[in-house]
Amino acid sequence: MSKALIVGIDPGITSGIAVLDLKGNLLGIASKKYAKKGFLVKYATRFGTPVIVATDVNPPPRTVKKLARALGCRLFYPEISLPNVEKNKIVKEYETKGYHQKDALAASIKALKSYHELFSKIQDAISKPDLEDTFDEIVVKLIKEKADNIADAIEKIRRKRK
Question: Total structural domains in the chain?
Answer without folding.
Answer: 2
